[in-house]
Specification:
The complex is a heterodimer of chains A (313) and B (207). By secondary structure, chain A is of the alpha+beta class. Chain A folds into 2 domains: 185 residues, Bira Bifunctional Protein, Domain 2 (BirA Bifunctional Protein, domain 2, 2-Layer Sandwich), CATH 3.30.930.10; 117 residues, no CATH class. Chain A is 39% helix and 22% strand. In chain A, the strands form 2 sheets. Chain A has an 8-stranded mixed β-sheet with strand order 1-5-6-11-10-9-7-8, with helices on both faces. A 3-stranded antiparallel β-sheet of chain A has the order 2-4-3. In chain A, helix 1 packs antiparallel against helix 5. Chain B has 207 residues and is an alpha/beta fold. Chain B has 8 helices and 11 strands. The chains are: A alpha+beta (313), B alpha/beta (207). The interface between A and B is medium-sized, with 21 and 23 residues.
Amino acid sequence: MLIDTRSLPKDERTYLELGALYEKQGYALYKMKKFEEYSLYLDNRNFLGSESVLTFQGFGGKLMALKPDVTLSIVKNARVPEKGCLKLYYRESVYRTERGGTDFKEINQMGLECIGALTEEDVRGICALAAESLSVIDEDFIFAVSHMGYLSALLDECGVADEKNRRAVIECLRARNAHDLPAVAGEGADTDTLARVIGTDTDFSSALAVVISLAKGEGTRAAAEELVALYESFASTPYRGRIRLDLSIVNDVDYYNGMIFQGYVSRVPKMILSGGRYDGLLSRIGREQGAMGFALNLGELNAFYPVKREERI
Amino acid sequence: MISIALPKGRLGNKAYKILEECGYTAGELAEESRKLVFENEACGVRYFLVKPSDVAIYVEYGAADIGVVGKDVLLESGADVYELLDLGIGRCRMCVAAREDYVEDTGRATVVATKFPRVARKYFMDTNREIEVIKLYGSIELAPILGMSDVIVDLVETGTTLKENRLKVTEEIFPVSARLIANKAAYKFKESEMREIVRRMKEVTAK
């Protein structure tokens, strides 16, 4: 008997639709264990962005952890072909505390990873797939892009050298806080340029013009070119009006090196999709490969998209 | 429609005056009333009056699109929001203070009484000092006087309360003033309206 998917909760419906979409694009479903050795997360705390991990003692005294993240497990365990890319998608539970909280939550996450010899076309393809994933959830969405390579090079070009100052400036970028920049950027730093980045609106073409005009060095110029190519690739898609260039999106510099992005839908007051290029994670474990992916928090959706009574079975 | 969370009390009144000058009026708000929600459809704004320490939470969870909050409350909440503007009102300093005759005993953890445990922990951790935090909700100055704590971490405006209780500022942590904050998701969908509010508020506060 066929199932009327309209009667399913929003997260289940989205999972089915996204699964079909990812398989059509050549991604294979990847299942994994619920736990890993704790040391995997301890060594990559900054990648997780959280220190809260649920641990337990395994046989033989090994400290184990319930997965707070899926990407680390895939990078560690999946076999990447010598040529081309490994393309996987997953739907897993991860266990984390909410920011500032002490209670662990089981989070229903879906996403995909592409690991191997990534081409620029692959990068743009993953961005397009992320935007399409958002459109599956809600037509009223925003796909906001940033570039870690650009931001990292811009901080160098603006003379923000000291590690403590860099961290503080990144916090200012993240909060769109231009007023505290002079106090935290360090002596001699070009805070006017940084304030321009913060102050620009996120309309892609106007933000791109600012990004290009501020690109003085090789690193910023190369990243700006990548952003131009991405914008052009979106021109022929139905999502061209939905893409933004938002340099307040900043991830950890040690892990993320290229395009990064976040996704929002108008009904949900928080970010529901995040991802980007994380070659840095692979080089930290001694692998010279490219990697990019994104994750969606499906668990957030049901509260904002209740199934209508007439649609229930 | 932009929803704005304002803190009840003096800071909220000052913030509303700025918004009123920017053209975002809600007549009843200026009057004495027990109402908590005020709307002006023509101006496209809806105001909520909430407890000052809750403003950042209302904004972070998207119940309000923007809000006005002290930098002290913002840092203590750790809310993941945009901080769009320093309004320059409600100025004071977050400080470490102790009895006038206090000498730090570096051989043990310093006992800190405060309403701001997150701020205190971060400050002392950054300076690599071990502390024990006692969370209090008011009359913080009493703690070192009664010997319950070595120091306090609290807001200092003029320093009169400290002086009258024979306490002194030993370290300044950061200057405090009111900030305009925004929900990150709401900003994505209402960017032009929010940028217009920021532009007008910048003009008014720069006068």
